[in-house]
Write a structure and sequence with these properties.
Blueprint (H helix, E strand, L loop, with lengths): L6 H24 L6 H8 L3 H7 L3 H5 L3 H13 L7 H15 L6 H9 L1 H12 L2 H12 L6 H19 L3 H19 L4
Length: about 190
């Protein structure tokens, strides 16, 4: 996340971080469903009103790095190596995030999200909200006309592929196969039909 420059922005960023940190600690300690928004506000020593100025709802407290995630996805498209295709760059980015998720410090967080239907659904909706930004980056990088459906489709399919990759016993193989389909199309993957 970029550092806020002014005093007011730094204070807002610190309050937001305090809220997110307090929420995560409480959620991991007691369980997401057992913690109220008021509990989080009290732990961060702010009012509930202040909490809602920084986060639209309880679920958002868990996923406080949404802007950074979107920026990283867009950067994967825009800052890819010369000659690297967009699908390849997106595949490598998803595999990198998959590898980061293996960090033992992430396990309690990932388990909490996986075990809490509200968070699991919110995480998927949040992830898919990046579709427009990724599609725009693909459009600009490929020189396609604004609103090109193939760019939107690539963004959608690439983002949705994450779920398949995460559930597969061999995530790297799943990513390679899914993105080969995106890279080369169905006909190249299944010439018989």
């Amino acid at each position: 996340m970029t550092e806020p420059t002014g005093r007011r922005e730094r204070k807002k960023a610190q309050t937001r971080k305090s809220l997110a940190d307090a929420a995560l600690e409480l959620f991991l300690d007691r369980g997401y469903d057992q913690v109220s928004v008021k509990d989080v506000a009290d732990a961060a020593d702010v009012s509930v009103t202040t909490l809602f100025k920084h986060f639209p709802g309880k679920e958002a407290l868990v996923f406080d790095e949404e802007e950074d995630i979107e920026a990283a996805l867009v950067a994967a498209v825009r800052e890819r190596a010369p000659g690297q295709s967009i699908p390849h760059a997106l595949r490598e980015h998803l595999l990198l995030t998959q590898d980061l998720a293996k960090d033992p410090r992430c396990a309690p967080f990932l388990r909490m999200v996986a075990d809490t239907p509200t968070l699991r659904d919110y995480a998927h909706r949040m992830w898919m909200r990046h579709e427009a930004a990724v599609a725009q980056a693909i459009t600009e990088e490929s020189g396609a006309p604004e609103g090109d459906v193939t760019c939107a489709a690539l963004a959608r399919f690439a983002l949705e592929a994450r779920v398949l990759i995460q559930r597969h016993t061999d995530p790297r193989r799943a990513a390679e196969e899914a993105f080969a389909l995106l890279e080369h199309g169905w006909a190249a993957s299944h010439p018989e039909g």
